[in-house]
Specification:
Blueprint lengths: L3 H6 L17 H8 L4 H13 L16 H11 L3 E6 L5 H5 L10 H23 L10 H25 L8 E3 L13 E2 H18 L13 H13 L4 H12 L24 E5 L12 H5 L6 H4 L1 E5 L1 H5 L44 E5 H14 L3 H12 L14 H15 L6 H7 L3 E3 L11 E3 L11 H6 L9
Antiparallel strand pairs: 1-5, 2-3, 4-6, 7-8
Helix pairs in contact: 2-3, 2-6, 3-6, 6-7, 7-8, 8-9, 9-10, 9-14, 10-14, 14-15, 14-16, 15-16
Family: Belongs to the SusD family.
Subcellular location: Cell outer membrane
Main location: membrane
Amino acid sequence: MISALLFAGVGCSEEFLDEQPSEFLTAEQIGEAAEKNPAVVRGTMTGIYSLTVETGTGGTTNHDDFGQKGYDIYGDMLSGDMALSVSTYGWYRADITEFQAPQDFTRTRNYMVWRYYYRIIRSANTVIDALGGNEAVPELDENKFIMGQAKAIRAHSYFYLTQYFAKKYNPTAEILPIYDDLQDQNGPKVAMSEIYDFMERDLTDAISLLDGFARAGKNEINKSVAQGMLAYVLGSKGEWQQVYDLTNAVVNSGEFSIMSSEEVLGGFNDLNTSGWMWGIDLTADVGLGLVSWWGQVDRFTYSYAWAGDAKAIDSDLYAAIPDNDIRKQQFQAPTGGYADLMPLNKFYDPNRVIGGQAVVTTDYVYMRIAEMYLLKAEAAARLGMDADAQSALKTVLDERLDDASYVDGLSGGGLLDEIYLQTRIELWGEGKSYLAMKRNQATVTRGDNHLSFVGVGIPYDDERLTFEIPESEIQFNPFITDQNE
């Protein structure tokens, strides 16, 4: 449970790089207290998880400013897999679906993405500094586990920054500044290879620090989640053997099971679902409503999706789902109506009253075990291990199709294409399509239920898919003067 008190503890501040923002205890204060009482630093770490769902963390009052899931929508729409099929209120239309923000550094959406992830990074630095700094290994197990979580979520934020602010992996391109402690206020862009080295160190440390951690709930990052994060980082630069080893370790841990055919039609609304690895348990105390992921996507919530901004699966992607695949039933079949291809049977408040859920208590999913099977399949296929790739893919598809034996006849590029397609289908609306598009260096052509760029092929490294360093950063950080990589 995320309480309202924790939200107050990490409330919104206009300047996220203030030296000692009033909403935070100093690292020294936290560190001194944590030596005797780990609950102090644990509360700060819990506050970071709260930031991932809090509204306004992108520095605005916009109704698409609500933390990690807000930027998941950005990615799903930029990739083309999520269509804005009806637009009455205008959220996402110009800046995201018409690509205006990625082409204009003065647009607010660039600032929102930048501010949110660097705010998480600064918060993680507060915890890490309090526990002794980047090289420290705390003596108390509880503090060691907290350090592991902080390093993991810091790397997670840098990873999303590399994905959103760079067209592709280029080790020499200078794209972002690194801030690894609270004294680091402003800095120059550094090479992408340096950022990746930093993320990999953080996540390798996190995996070690989190060994033996029995988390209180799936709100917290554990070893398997950190391994999944590192698999995503390494996959984005093509380190496939390590991706295979990491995902294989997660699927063999026995912690999680693939969501059943019944569960994939069960609303994707409960953190306790067997196949969920990491997410947030939303309760009435959190106070989310219209300004939330559910308030943008779910027709059964008091939402824009109900009132006039329909979000739907891309029509071509829907057509690629076989009729005997249970996941086709997640979406409203096209009848010529407003709700065509909306995810009415994938994401929904259990009461299923259109516009009914005013206070959001349906949970957020951040990572599932199916992702690890699909990443394992992708890595195996790229390593020429077709049998392993087929087996991992079929483990997922056996819960979706009556007969997945067709996979046994695939190999090479055809097998990779199928894995990419199944990744897009399985993880639709979960914020992973953009990552998969870049990882597979794909070109996606929008179907006819989009409001713009229908039939236009847009490659993964198109300038229109990559955000710009925001105007405010260029104005106030003396070390950054331009957009050039």
